[in-house]
Amino acid sequence: MDKNLIAYCGVDCAACSDYQGGKCPGCRQTVWPEGDACLPVACCRDKGISYCGECPSFPCADMKAFYAESESHEQAHRRMAALRTGPALEIGAIVWGVLDIEREVAFWSAALDYVLKYPASDDWAILIPRNGDGVQLSLNKVSSPKARRHHMDLFADDAQAEAERLLSLGATRKPWNYPPDADYIVLQDPDGNPFCVVQR
Predict the structure, then answer these.
(1) pLDDT score recorded for residue 130
(2) pTM
């Protein structure tokens, strides 16, 4: 069996006769009764790809929801971990040192259209995108009044317009010696932490 043709999700592979018989041709070619294909098979057929790993959106929200609700979700996690291509590491969160959790939650939620993943505590909060996948922003309360050695680059289609919007939310401009061809604007959040708005 060619591992590269097996669905990366692996949710229903154990129930598939082709998989069990060692004849897996990939999700798109697998013979399923009309209208009875699992979500990965149907999606692969629609997109004209052989398996989920060929999809630039993998792992998509539909895929995650599908295997999260499946009784085989532990198998799915193992197969995805074993067969997934690309870097073994990825940025899952940016931890941002702040002085005032409540104020920073309000600012970054409005700035990025993020929401709290869980209720914030006195010294910790996790923000995630309101819609879809993305890097989470973790806010960690610190005691030093100095700006921390970190910054984010926020890519924007209209950097100037986004900078003005962020200034209206409470950001401030950070004095900066810009080169003539600068494609970014340096701002500070309400705590004084610097970040850049970069023209995409």
Answers:
(1) 93
(2) 0.51
